[in-house]
Amino acid sequence: MQIIDGKAVADEIKKEIALEVAEIKASGGKTPHLVAILVGNNGASETYVANKVKSCEELGFNSSLLRFDPSITESELLAEVKKVNDNDDMDGLIVQLPLPDHINPDKVMETIDPRKDVDGFHPINIGRMAKGLPAYISATPQGVLDLLERYNIETSGKHCVVVGRSQIVGLPMSILMQRNTKIGNCTVTLTHSKTKDLPAVCATADILIAALGRPEFITAEYVKEGAVVIDVGLTRVEDSSKKSGFALKGDVKFDEVAPKCSFITPVPKGVGPMTIVSLMKNTLLSAKGVIYSK
Ligand code: NAP
Fold this sequence. Notes:
The structure is a single chain. The chain is of the alpha/beta class. It folds into two domains: about 25-135, Rossmann fold, CATH 3.40.50; about 140-275, Rossmann fold. About 40% of the residues lie in helices and about 15% in strands. Strands 1-11-8-7-5-6 form a six-stranded parallel β-sheet. Helix 2 (about 45-60) links the parallel strand 2 (about 35-40) and strand 3 (about 60-70). NADP nicotinamide-adenine-dinucleotide phosphate (NAP) binds near residues 163, 195 and 214.
């Protein structure tokens, strides 16, 4: 059994991005610029956005954090998104979720210019991804693809079971794993809370991707001997032994599942560190005009 070290892969990709950005700057090219919109002061959102800004600094990107009071109206927020759309210096825009209840997140996502939608949540990017056209791919599924690739894991012809069908993880993951691409060509089963006999379905997987948000739900009975197990889950659970008072748990019961696997991602330091790296990669692609020409 081999543990997939997401932290090490993320650090490696970060170095590659930083090097490329330094070269672009040295030759007078465009410095990538990521914009984050944060509404209100939700503690977890503050942390996520702060980490994204920090990554920009580390990699030599420009960043702008636009903060708004939770009382901002939906139309005011949409106007702010349009301002970023119209600013040629700004390459990528992320709007941190969740938004206050009076703002429709779908409306906000659909207002972001698809050419700046580096989170890959806009229906145009999801549609282009499904058609196999160049598109911004949402960060966490892209991170999983990069882990499989960097560990030379064969996916072609394998049975991949994805647990969870969310718009940001499970659904795009299932589409990506069946595409006719190097990391792809799987026969995919997408499962969810209404799936019958989930343990038996999962136990047929050569590659099992757990993204359901239920800590330690996937136990040994869900896993075939020799399977590759990717644990996307990340849930805070109370833990009085930790200084912070909580521990991060994945969806997989690591200790009993790991001995059955060929490869497995741990939590933390598995898929988690890859997500931010994918966002940075998308912002760089935008600055270079790779997905959509400038
Ligand atoms: P979500 O929107 O809550 O979706 C969860 C999905 O899991 C739903 O499709 C749900 O089915 C399914 N599900 C829930 N309970 C189930 C059960 N008992 N059996 C089978 N399926 C079940 O969650 P998400 O946003 O995709 O996130 C999933 C997990 O990934 C969370 O722990 C989240 O924190 C983590 N995550 C991590 C990263 C990272 O950077 N590592 C990024 C994003 C998310 P229904 O559709 O039928 O309700």
